[in-house]
Amino acid sequence: MTESEVGIGLVGLGFVGEKAHLPAFNSIPGAKLIAVADVDLPRAKKAAEKFKLSAAYPSHKDLLADPDVDAVVISVPTFLHRQIALDAVKAGKHVLCEMPLAPTLSDAREIVEAAKRAGVVLMPSLNFRFTPNYVKAKELVEKGSLGTPAVAFYREFIAAEVLAQQWPPNSWAWDQAKSGGGPGFTLSVWAIDLLRWLFGADVVEVHSVSRDVVLSELGGTKGYNSLAVLKFSSGAVATLQFSGLVRPLMSTSRLEILGSNINSLTATGNDVLTLYGAEPDKQEWVFRKRGPRVWGHYQEDEHFVESLRQKKTPMITGEDALKAQEVATSIVKAKQALL
Ligand SMILES: NC(=O)c1ccc[n+]([C@@H]2O[C@H](COP(=O)([O-])OP(=O)(O)OC[C@H]3O[C@@H](n4cnc5c(N)ncnc54)[C@H](O)[C@@H]3O)[C@@H](O)[C@H]2O)c1
Asked: Which pLDDT value is given to residue 332?
């Protein structure tokens, strides 16, 4: 790795690998995309051709043997992260790993410990910390615009038709052992981390219930519903609501935070933030960005590259990933207890 350029290898060209990380790393100054790997070799070759990369591999092992690769992005299904991450740190490569790190906490801890022992950087992909409207929300919370944040309501609805296409019923994403607990588990890690970061506090109490509806008209995909209530060490409380039981027009992601001074913030999608206060009674910020820049992946990947170039610890560590997964695991356990 030279000070001016970090060689990047990307493993897994599915939804997040191909749509988010690939275009992001392709345009980040100081990053040089070297190669991609995917068990679906034609998919890897197509990406390598499109982005003019020197190699497309069918296995992460070939990619790890490439001396020009300094850092690896792992965006394969969750149950495959562990082996690839362990092989990568053994090969002395830095790692940006998609979340959850692994389906179980023990496997996730193994990855974090292995990276520490090898002295390489492991940054979990918790991109909500880089999403434009959440970054602005953090700035306002830190400025005291809400007094002390007291309550948050977070809601994420994804259309059943969209999910059935991205993650068909036989996909790894619905398999408890492969995903760690289905979409309710997978999706909650980002929201949990977001609230820990915004509140500057840890989760101390978790309650949850769930209800999944099998959608036979969509090939048996599950219209999941996962509802959790969290209490934080600061005294703040929050609800999380995840659903895949809606039509496309009901798709939404929305965060509301109410403060001790009766001001509140709402973040709609990833691009709008509104502050409800006294004078003025309403202020709105609209971030006109698209794709990886509005989801935060571009800024996240840029932060990873800059941390490596400047030899600084990234703002998100393995410990943050473990804390988010501990809470997500409690949500799933509580759900199982009720079945
Ligand atoms: N940060 C985010 O916004 C975000 C969004 C979606 C998914 N994710 C996470 O990213 C990961 C991948 O999810 P996805 O929805 O993109 O998955 P996906 O199923 O769409 O794609 C996975 C890709 O990995 C490839 N693959 C499978 N096994 C492989 C192997 N052994 N070696 C190399 N390639 C292999 C597949 O061929 C496929 O191209 C998951 O951990 C998921 O939780 C993160």
From this structure: 87
The predicted structure's pLDDT at residue 2: 65
Q: Does one domain contain both 111 and 156?
A: no
Residue 318 is assigned to a structural domain of this protein = no
- Whether 217 is covered by a domain: the verdict is yes
Nearest CA to ligand 1 atom 13: 77
Measured in Å, residue 45 CA sits from the centre of ligand 1 at: 17
Supply the range of the domain harboring residue 11.
6-124
Q: Which of 19, 75, 171 to mutate to test the pocket of ligand 1 (most atoms within 8 A of CB)?
A: 75
User: Which tens digits make up the pLDDT trace of 54-93?
Assistant: 999 999 999 999 999 999 999 999 999 999 999 999 999 9
For the cut 70, the answer to whether the pLDDT of residue 338 exceeds it is no
For ligand 1, atom 25: residue with the closest CA: 12
3-state secondary structure of 176: helix
- The contacts of residue 210 (CB under 8 Å, 6+ apart) are 184, 224, 225, 226, 227, 335, 338
250 CA to centre of ligand 1 in angstroms:
25
Q: Which helix (H) or strand (E) holds 266?
A: strand 264-268
Q: Do 294 and 287 form a contact (C-beta atoms < 8 A)?
A: yes
- Contact 91/67 with Cβ under 8 angstroms? no
Instruction: Tell me the average pLDDT across 10-23.
Output: 96
Spatial separation of the C-alpha atoms in residues 305 and 31, rounded to whole Å: 6
- Where residue 337 falls among pLDDT bands split at 50, 70, 90? low
